[in-house]
Design brief:
Structural class: mainly alpha
Largest sheet: none
Distance between the termini: 34 Å
Shape: globular
Oligomer: single chain
Order of helices and strands: HHHHHHHHH
Number of helices: 9
Radius of gyration: 20 Å
Helix content: over 70%
Length: about 220
């Protein structure tokens, strides 16, 4: 198994944080105008799903730029990120009808993190051991990244321009999420090979080849 030098691993974390910071900020910058247009003709759930597609595709593309030189399965990552955000963001209006405030925010963050991490886990499970930890890292990253919403709210309450406030908030989210998942990514890439769950999913008829012939 090929292992990277500690310097290369830290480079991966730094590039991953940068990719998530830029990707999340640009993704939302593109997604918000699209969401406004869609909301004129569709409900909240559909609007959030469309926004999720845009954010997931842009963020997944930014992450792909980092992964593509290190792994062979990077292309599937973009699709997984897009599906994950499209499935996770629509939980926001649904949860808002039941619970609000900090608790509601945490529930939404956990739901989005689980949806995104779960979709990406489907890619990871065939390539690294202990891939399930990625889902937990994604949940922690999204919930902790909510600090960006706090920064945005504080900025909006000051004389800072709205566009700057949103950009700073999204950048903080991307950086925090990138740090939480980047360290986990490095740890997982040290453990190449399919996860135990992926090995179990093989067809029952598949068996290891047996030696033929008699022993002398």
């Amino acid at each position: 198994m090929r292992t990277e030098r500690p310097e290369a691993e830290w480079d991966l974390v730094l590039w991953w944080v940068l990719a998530n910071t830029v990707g999340y900020t640009v993704g939302w910058a593109v997604a918000l105008p699209v969401g406004w247009e869609v909301s004129e003709a569709a409900g909240a759930t559909v609007t959030h799903a469309v926004v999720g597609v845009v954010v997931g595709a842009v963020l997944g593309g930014a992450q792909w730029l980092v992964l593509r030189r290190r792994v062979s399965w990077a292309t599937w990552w973009v699709l997984a990120s897009t599906v994950g955000y499209a499935a996770g963001l629509p939980t926001r209006p649904a949860v808002g009808l039941v619970v609000g405030g900090v608790i509601g925010f945490g529930v939404v963050g956990a739901a989005v993190g689980a949806a995104v991490g779960g979709a990406q886990w489907l890619v990871l499970r065939h390539n690294v051991h202990r891939a399930g930890w990625w889902v937990l890292a994604s949940v922690i990253g999204v919930v902790a990244g909510g600090l960006g919403d706090v920064v945005r709210a504080v900025s909006l309450g000051s004389d800072v321009a709205v566009a700057v406030a949103f950009a700073v908030g999204f950048a903080v989210f991307g950086a925090v999420y990138g740090a939480a998942t980047g360290v986990t990514l490095v740890w997982l890439l040290r453990q190449r090979g399919p996860s135990r769950a992926a090995r179990r999913s093989r067809r029952p008829g598949q068996r290891k080849p047996q030696r033929t012939g008699s022993r002398k």
